[in-house]
Amino acid sequence: MHKDYVEIFSALLTPVLAILAAYIAWQQWRTNHLKVRHDLYDRRLAVYLAVMDFLACIMRNSKASDLEMITFLQKTRESYFLFGRDIGDYLDTLYKKSVDLQCQNTMLHDAASNVPVGEERSRLAHEKGELTKWFSKQFLVARENFSKYMRLS
Q1: DSSP alpha helix (H) spans, 62-110
Q2: Do residues 66 and 103 touch, judged by C-beta distance below 8 A?
Q3: How many CA atoms are closer than 13 Å to the CA of 61, on its beta-carbon side?
Q4: For 126, which of 18, 66, 118, 149 is 20 to 30 Å away at the CA?
């Protein structure tokens, strides 16, 4: 009878070890997967915060300086590798619209290119106002766009 138990336990030993090894391998895979997601989260968060800082500068001054625009490009240049194409396109749109806003500010306020009061100046002021409104909405739009990439689970 004792011999039967030994045979049964020795027969069960191989499947139990295989199950245990599979469980350990799955736990290691899961841990590595979570670490990769966490590392990506930190890098993605840095891009998101750069966008928020850029939007805050624009809203604070109704424009972005050359330095702020360059800083934005430097802090977001990894975005094409960290996110989908949608975020890359969104960041391009932010940059292009900031260039438009900068041009309108120059035309409205720079002494060398100061447009006289009239229809053209009114059009420029209206376009600047529309761009400023657009930028004010981007805090929510950016959060929405980035949210699908910022989940850890």
Answers
A1: 66-76, 79-82, 85-109
A2: no
A3: 14
A4: 66
Q: What pTM was computed for the model?
A: 0.75
DSSP helix/strand/coil, 25 = helix
Sequence letter at residue 56: A
Could you give the C-alpha distances from 1 to 13, 15, 45, 119, in angstroms and in order?
A: 19, 23, 65, 105
